[in-house]
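Q: Two folds, back to back.
A: First:
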Amino acid sequence: MSAVTADAGAAEVRAYVEGYLLAAYAQPRRGDAPAGAQDAAAQLVLLTPPDRPDVAAPIEAATRAAAATWLVRDLANTPSDVKDPAWFADRALRLADALGLDTTVRGPAELAEEGFGALLAVGAGSARGPRLVTVTYDPADNGVTPATDRSAPRHVVVVGKGITYDTGGLSIKPREAMVPMKTDMVGAAVALAVVLGAARARSDRRVTAVLPLAENHVGAASYRPGDVLRTWSGRTVEVANTDAEGRLVLADAVGYAVQELAPDVLVDVATLTGAASMGLGRGHGALFATDDAVADALEDAARTTGERVWRMPLVEDYAGALRSDVADLRHVPVESPGGGAITAALFLREFVGDVPWAHLDVAGPARATADRHEVVAGATGFGARLLLEALDRL
């Protein structure tokens, strides 16, 4: 039992409960059903005086935020011999169906028919084919009245990189670098957790998660450095390094989201570059944005949740490094100007159009080697609470 919150206000109660639940997470062993944040919450006793104002709402909010983080951790910590694109898509479908959300799953045949050339190329080397999942929460379908008088709710689209395992493809990674690559799909897990969390919170924002899922493997059909891919948007991309696959699957998913989903705000989340973790370490995510208001909303939410971000520049002088002689774009520079996280973000920007956009490169804080405060070893779940907190600000 704890008396720490006896004199705490609602915000302090929420912070205490959320911190407790985040730190209480433990990776499930193979074959065990994962525990839930609600189960951990049931073991916490708060002693409050009888005249205290109701604290049910902050406790519920804390549990909801922690549950989103736990889901990301559970998905990311699942071994990749289990977690292929089909498994992830099925898991997303079942979780979304439980909340009555609209879900579409595209398999290899649908992806080929609709022209998702980059996603198909990345997944071609694996016997386990790619998927593209969209999950939408619409407040109008759930009887939620918008907080302000407007004809339609703001539509926030979250695109998450979902590489269920990353060998690097033909540009193969060193052995040591492959060990944590079961977590290379945390962006997709965050996007899924956000749309589910928005539904549970009955947000007045319309939220869609777009999950491009593929296994970047080595096989007879692997795509090659030097290939030219046609993305969903029609733009062609010269491949320079098959281990820079995340920006390719995001190019297809972002292009699709912009043109087909009509977002008011677009956010993508990805363990995208080693450069981001080299520059910022494991304590901060790299934030890029084309819109100051969107960047401010995410930075403000980060201060609230403690999931720290650092805004990085989209350096126009570096954009020329993405030019190709044989395609519209080259996804990795021939001669790097440095700032690898920046050139990756500039590549993604090519598919965004005029939509207000933010890119979160979480390669550093998405994984931890040891427990520290509310962060646990393994997949940390970084970004889920941040984006849920940011929804009302966007």
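A: Second:
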Amino acid sequence: MLSKKGRGAARLAAAVMASGLVAAGAIATAGPAAADDTTSAHGGATATLGGLKVYDQAVVHGQGGDQPLGAGLFEMSVDNGGTLQTYCIDIHNPTQQQAKYQEVPWSASSLHNNADAGKIRWILQNSYPQVNDLEALAKKADAGHLTEKTAAAGTQVAIWRFSDHAKVDAVDPAAEKLADYLQKSAQNLSEPKASLTLTPPAVSGKSGNRLGPVTVHTNADSVTVAPAADVPSGVKVVGKDGKPVTSAAEGSQLFFDVPAGAADGTTSLTAQAATKVPVGRAFTGIGEHAKSQTQILAGSSESTVSAAATASWKKQGAIPAVTAEKNCSKGGVDVTASNKGDEVFRFALSGKKYEVAPGASRTVTVPVGEDQPYKIAVKGEGGFEKTFSGVLDCKTAGSGGGKPTPQPSPASVGGTNGGETGGGDLAETGSSSATPVIAGIAVVLVLVGGGSVFFLRKKKSGTA
């Protein structure tokens, strides 16, 4: 049998190979001049929401009266291995069953303009499940006796007071004591670094040169690097010293070494690692599940994280690299075009024409309405075309002042008896799901007659 470490290595190797094949297929079908980018430029962990794992009850006080809801820890299954525990940071927005999520920086989430975001991270680091000694936690909070359920509920309530600035209380007295203690004690901490990202995610240049650098940013001890499965003959992924690389670390610089005379083309590399995702990283819904409520990381097992970078080259002319990233502060998507060729790169974007001189770059912010799907096409000379799609999700559902809808969300959570037991540091507890329990509760609430409203509102979606 493989040891735990050996199984992790084998899982990571298989994941790298699969990701490399996927990346290669995407580029092969897109061709050298066109691509449709619906994936995140940030990299990191991608996971599927399982359900509310450990929870108790809370009450939100709003314009429509008091609304009961479940408050506690969600659990996610990471693609290619791993488990995450998360709290909600968007109280009025519903979850979607089996929603897909992507790790993102605070700047690409509803925390982008929240002056209390750092206090949420303090709460996560100083409460359950990072703090497993519930007796000691209860003593600090003068809360009497805490269970995993009430500790999770009290922590979630305190987070909501900062993430949504909501008027919300825990039903259990001990949980309420904990929420008050965490709220009063919280201090502003800095944003945690990404588990894994590559910058920039796209480079370009003339054949006969090393294209890059692409810099690795990670909290992992080591990162596996793999070129696309169909990398053109002679093209290599190398380090700063020009030697081929298969692994990297924090701060490593990667280059695409393209031989002189190589036919104009494109390729990619995939970086992957097995690591714990830093507590406090934000997770937003992607794809068809982009409207699912935003989450924030409370605990992580060793999980597979990944990031990709692309390269394009030509012998002469304009040689562009175009990327896009959500800019919540500006309410839009930043499209950045760089040109490593010897001619001006001319392109059209949102009905306007732009130019990028050789050796220069230009960023254009395309305004996008909150919660609105976007499809941004960049069209340049010589048949160049690249499209970015997603949904802008930069605000909490309650920030518009809307009232909760008078019906429970199908995939929302709640109940009268609290969540199933278990929990603690995910590195020790592993994974499970409370989805069947939650589904049953939702049915009961509907039968009762429209019951409680949990995380309400129509909301957001997408990736940049």
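Q: And?
A: Residues 1-39, 400-463 have pLDDT under 50 and may be disordered.
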